[in-house]
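Obj.: predict assembly geometry.
Materials: sequence records (below).
Method: joint structure prediction, all chains together.
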Amino acid sequence: MDNSQKMSTLKKRLEEWQDQVSTMAERPVSFNTISGVPVKQLYSPLDVDKFDYEKDLGLPGSYPYTRGVQDNMYRGRYWTMRQFSGFGDAFDSNRRYRYLLEQGQTGLSVAFDLPTIMGYDSDHERSLGEVGRCGVAIDSLEDMETLFDQIPLDRVTTSMTINGPAAILWCMYLANAENHGVSLRQVGGTIQNDILKEYIAQKSWIFPPVPSMRLITDIFSFATDHVPKWNTISISGYHIREAGSTAVQELAFTLADGFAYIEAGIAAGLNVDTFAPRLSFFFNAHLDFFEEICKYRAARRIWSRHLKERYGAKDPRSLKLRFHTQTAGCSLTAQEPENNIVRTALEALSAVLGGTQSLHTNSMDEVLALPTEKAVTIALRTQQIIAHESGVANTIDPLAGSYYVEALTTQMEAEAEVYFDRIEQLGGVLKAIDCGFFQQEIADAAYLYQLAVERQERIIVGVNRFNSDEKPQIELLKIDPDVEFKQVEKLSKLRKKRDNNAVSSALSELKVTAATNENLIPKILAAVKCYTTEGEIVAALKEVFGVYKEKPLF
Amino acid sequence: MTSKKIRVLVAKPGLDGHDRGARVVARALRDAGMEVIYTGLHQTPEQVAETALQEDVDVVGLSILSGTHMTLVPKIKRLLVDNSMKDVLLVVGGIIPEEDAMVLINEGYADQVFTPGDALEKICSYITGHFT
Amino acid sequence: MKQLVEELLKGNRRAAARLITLVENEDRQKTELLQAIYPHTGNAYVVGITGAPGAGKSSLVDQLLQEIRAEGLSVGIIAVDPTSPFSGGAILGDRIRMQDHALDQEVFIRSMGTRGSLGGLSRSTREAIQVLDAFGKDLILVETVGVGQSEVDIVRTADTTIVLLTPASGDSVQTLKAGIMEIADLFVINKADLPGTERTVAEINMMLDMKNSASWRPAVIPTVSIRGEGIEELWTALKEHRLYLETSGQLAEVRLQRVRRELTEQVEYLVKNRVWAEVKDKFVLEELIEKIARREKDPYSSACELLDSINFFESKS
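Observations (raw structure tokens):
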């Protein structure tokens, strides 16, 4: 029998089987993925009949990178275990970082408090009650020095979750490294710096889109010349998903943002191969196990195809989609929080099977407060157990060839392409943000999801099924309310002791440059070096750039 | 003749941008027949209280996920009282530990606190129940 | 109630808010209340802003507020959003764009749901304007739902009507209903940084040139409201239109017509309520309706019979 004969025989048998099975009762729940994609009872070679191994998968480390971006993946070394953390003042967080490094964590990931994220100093009236709450409070280079005290910046890489004021915090990090004798060519790390997803989902914006994009291309260009090991952007689907999107929306919107940054870099006169290799991604790991794995695989394939075919990238490094993963905060439940350990383990496993480059596992108590040291340790141990005990890292992309996984990967790629076309029709990402396209799609998905939970079409253990009335009995981390007071005091001392003439001339130079097309990074670097605060720099830039206001969409 | 509708202010005080909950709740309240006024993100307590006054709402719903509830809720309650709106129903939603929720309710700063996992139906019927 | 009105006249914001709620809820005291404030109205200048959803009405109002406040005028804003016909609920989100002005004591913003009205305003918008007028606001800006369906309400309500378009609607300028061309005292082409702006401006000017009937020729002003561009020009044009209305005597004429219409409507409203109340007392309407449906009777003579039965025609003579 030749292949087509085999296939038609199989087709016939499957149809008979289907007839038989369709008369059998099924459990009364939705068999869709968590994103609402219908899942068949059975996948077979018929679902992958157009599949071409060379074209669609290839080998790890080679085009189209579906199986992974490194040649030997986890056989060479594990993913970076990078727990996102930060709270209180720089001193508190520094202690937590050193603890995590001692426990075997291999990279740092800084969470800033909301005033820092929004570009306000700790003593600003809008910072009231927020200082050091959701992350560490950083106002000036002085705080950055404390934050990385006794941490070897030439060996440890640091990821900083900062967007609107990314350039400023990055400059503080660089200035601190230089002061410790580490050259800019040596320092490695990542800034999130993804402003598009702020307008779309995370809503921590400062400036309007156009000047924000200019700051980003300034960073691309400065890093290319001076900080070559730095990942200048971490294009984030995480927050899009947390805001309630489906997996396909997360995939499509994130990659669309990625293409927009590529286009912005090219429009700013940069050669795509000079900055594309430093772009990285950040995805969410939600609970639908296979859908998540397929999402990561599809993401790599789409990125490499577009970079090669649409943007003419030649350097293989430009074609590789490297990504960080965080397990889904929105999947955690306040009810029976210990169950979150299991959820997180499953999510982490999907990220590993999907070939992530680094991973944050959430702590069980994050739905209630910032994590305690015990909860963080369990979360880190979860990754270590997956790595060292489960055996899943022994072979590369172990689920490749599964009819279901390959069919779903291809389907997600196709659905993402449909979104790319729609975004294109709307005039690109910025225009689509302006008319509220993404925001509306996500709001609708979030509402539908919630309704499905309320109708019990989707079961959440301990919440809408198998629930007990017991109140959670776990210890929560308390943030010392004195942190705010101490931070404000420290800041007022700084404002007295620094060279205030240098500060004001740095600020006026900054404003002048902001109004031109000249790269702003050297000016920001000069300003942070004389201890100009983050809030002062942001306020100066607001004068030139203006501020963004959100769209009323529901 | 009267055609009263329950007017609810859904507000996001503080600096956190997590508005998924606020927006989902706003839609649910609308679908339950209420008029929902949404302030948008990043509101100061003063803005929230003044908006409640101008819009003459029956309910103020605060969504806070940044851990600042113990600072912001009492402040907003005090400003509402100053605006002669002490009777307005004040509900809070967000990441709020049980212990803090008890303090907010017992001290009279909030009438009710909802946390992740609470059903939309529960929130809607709590509000409508209060006005029937 | 009397106290509320007194407080309103003293400038109490809480009283203004309460009174708007009372008129909006069709409170039993509504008529009495409107009577009490009427002598204190007629001082505010009312500007209507209409245009398709997404054209940027709220951002424009936000920006315009800065110009108006810079001249020291006090402002009331009524922002109307649609009420869901299914649930009767609404999400009123227009003020999101205006929250920078929330703490300005001279600015009062009120969001209203249409609550079943189809004309672009809510049923009680005009009454809410009266409250803000008596409250002492110099200028009242009314932002319509912007359905683009029926804009009659706003013209009847506002002294100046601004129609907001975007270049994206450029293709459809030709197909815009003549109605919208008629009602505009000023055209604003918002989002004028988008391609197609010049063409849209030219097309509108061409259409205005063709109809050259009125003595006021609406200005066409490009703006980029998110950047504040063109707002100063808009404010100047708005003041020019007001000056034109005042000096030409048209403002007095328009307002006289408005009073005439309000009186007529009020009479019709009272008559209607009175007649129906009496008719419903005496008749089982459903029976009559069924008879008409079966063609045993006709609606024309039936109506006369109904009114006869309550001696309507006699009381008239």
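Conclusions so far: The longest strand of chain C covers residues 45-51.
To do: check interface contacts against the pulldown list.
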